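[step 3/7] fold_predict: job queued, chain A
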Amino acid sequence: WYQRRVRDWLQKTCTQHGWKHGSSPLVWRELVDRGGAGTYLGGWDDFKKMAEHWYSYSDKLENGKVKDISSENKAGYEQDKAASVKAPIKPVNISLIGAAQPIAYQFLPLLFNSCFKNAHLAITLHDIEEHKDTLEGVKMELEDCSWPELYSIQITHCIKQAASSADYLIILDPLDNKSHPERFQLVKAASQLYRDIATAIKSNIKPDTKIMINGYKACLGGMLLKHHGVTCDNITVVLALDEQRMRAKLAKQLAVMPDDISGITVWGNVPVHHVASTAIGTVRCHEGAITGPGSYNKTIKEAVNGENWEFSNVHTRDDRDQDIFAKSGRSPDMSSALALHRHLVSLVTGSPNTTMGCVSAGQYNTTPGHVFGFPVTVSEGGMVSVIEEETGVSDKLQEIIELQDKQLAAEMRVALGECDDVEFALQHLETTLWNILKDPPTKKILEEQEAERISKEEAERKAAEIRAKEEAKRKAEEEALRKAEEEAAAAEAAATAAAAAEEDEDQEPDYDAED
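[step 4/7] structure written:
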């Protein structure tokens, strides 16, 4: 290509000036910017003679050296040409379903200068059309940040479009106990949400796409996606929020840094009471009866000097969320976004020991196919594998694991319409809990929740009766008033008619008197 270009240039230049020259280089003398035709000199040897004659300059370079310089210039030209052609950018595609939620606003900045090394990010923001302005505002702020990794941002209201090219599909489930206080209604709402998502993505998503679900019914949501035809096996549930909350509480009690604690596991179906466990956790740098160097690890059970410490010291996710909201007036979006980011980092870079929800293959006596929280290891390619403890877990923890597994099965029945009657569905779920759970504090909480539900229903029933009585009384009063008004109107009409008749009689002429 280079030789052809030089040959074309020689031919064009010689034709333009009327010269004859067959090889490179071509040398001529010309007064720059003064017009006039150039004076043909010839090749390299002719140029050397001209320079020596006119400028007394004698070139010491041999012909072989000149050829080397020519070859070097040619190679440099080729390199510059190759560098000027930009290689096509293949960005990492990250799609957020439900991107108008506050957690997305907190999560998006964490993507940059993070786990995606030397990669550009193409971000797709999805939400319903009513949130279009919110998404536009988020997009504008991302553009204003001018991150070097940001390749593109697009907004869509079509789940199918958001999922079609996604390498990471992040589903931000908006359902919680505030939007749906009744468990039955929450489960039914989740059924509708994930059925719609599955219908949209099952034939469009790439086989290697990693699906991350964050929300109150995330485990059930993963099972529903699989049930409704999503064949992708890379479905994981974000559980890091419960893990990092317990780690922070333990670090405060043990006077260590949160990073000194590892192995906290979130089991089962979140958010359920006593969902996070220290059963296989360890701590380092702890000053206690047995102390070692910084690399020495002891079990958390040894450090706290007790078994099942979490059962009496750690709040459920719902309780903690309510406490934060009561004090700040905001949901815990900052900590939730960080948990989501840590989950993503584990999938991208790998992790030897973390916790997340994944599809069960029957580990820890759980039902195969359930999406369940486990201790896991993650390879650099994002492959998630459940860590199975050789010694197993305590009887109490195993009981809670089986409880949550049965609860997931019950919720799945409700979601699929096998329990359409509200009262029966609630009774089915509660019976599952009561038959399996033997822990008195948890049973007491369930009893209180059941009593509160019954009390609430009774209050609503009484209020409805009072409203019905008041409405009946109001209608009776209106009917009596209407009848009274009708009778008064009839009496007035009768009186008017009688008066008119009497007046007519007074005005009638007396013919007998004239005679």
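[step 5/7] annotate
DSSP finds 17 helices and 16 strands in the chain.
Residues 436-440 have pLDDT under 50 and may be disordered.
exit 0
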